[in-house]
């Protein structure tokens, strides 16, 4: 288990209560991009090695902002996490199925921020008329699997060795919540 998480347990409730989740704005881009690029560089949460440039990040974020589907968690004046959702697949037959992404700054893992963000994503997607929410999770990502379980997502299967990063195969666990 992540040692930051173990150390942080006592403070979890306090930070989760103090963190505010609000709709993201274009001015949040730098903070969001720093969290996202850190995950690209140092984790198997995002299956790419290519960091996003500010221009690419702006275009990526704008698509979510247009739909009111991007949120940030703020604590003590700093952005400590973000969450977005979008249709799971691009073909229009998938339009009632959303896929979520939740990212918390590494030094704030295990303190309730991811839960605060996912709660808002679920409420927002439900209000927007989505029928199902999906999370595609690298199978070794215990924190993300637990986060989604606690909101009622069910593991609907694992697809073995469909990704590769850091020189090893990655399995994909798909989790589903009926909204
Ligand atoms: C996954 C992530 C978003 C979770 O956010 P978080 O703020 O750390 O999670 P929370 O503190 O809200 O905890 C949510 C649940 O996960 C559990 N958890 C947190 N970290 C954990 C860990 N390292 N191992 C196992 N469980 C963990 C918590 O105990 C809690 O469950 P509980 O209610 O049963 O106690 C965060 O760890 C993160 O940003 N990771 C890197 C990016 C990533 O993997 N994103 C998801 C891509 S699918």
TrEMBL record:
- This entry's Enzyme Commission designation comes to 2.3.-.-
GO MF annotation list: acyltransferase activity
Record keywords, A-Z = Acyltransferase, Transferase
Which of the seven top EC classes does this enzyme belong to? transferase
Keyword Cell division assigned: no
Q: Which Pfam families match?
A: Acetyltransf_1
The keyword Transferase is annotated on this UniProt entry: yes
Q: Where is the N-acetyltransferase domain?
A: 19-179
User: What is the protein name stated in its UniProt record?
Assistant: GNAT family N-acetyltransferase
């Amino acid at each position: 288990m992540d040692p930051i998480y173990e150390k942080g347990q006592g403070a979890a409730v306090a930070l989760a209560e103090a963190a505010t989740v609000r709709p993201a704005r274009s001015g949040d881009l730098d903070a969001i991009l720093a969290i996202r690029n850190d995950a690209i560089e140092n984790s198997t949460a995002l299956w790419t090695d290519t960091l996003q440039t500010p221009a690419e990040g702006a275009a990526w974020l704008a698509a979510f902002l247009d739909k009111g589907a991007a949120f940030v968690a703020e604590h003590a004046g700093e952005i400590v996490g973000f969450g977005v959702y979008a249709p799971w697949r691009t073909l229009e037959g998938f339009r009632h199925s959303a896929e979520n992404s939740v990212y918390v700054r590494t030094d704030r893992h295990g303190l309730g921020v991811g839960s605060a963000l996912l709660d808002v994503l679920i409420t927002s997607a439900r209000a927007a008329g989505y029928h199902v929410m999906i999370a595609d999770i690298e199978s070794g990502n215990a924190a993300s699997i637990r986060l989604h379980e606690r909101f009622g997502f069910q593991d609907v299967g694992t697809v073995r060795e469909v990704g590769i990063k850091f020189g090893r195969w990655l399995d994909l666990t798909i989790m589903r919540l009926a909204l």
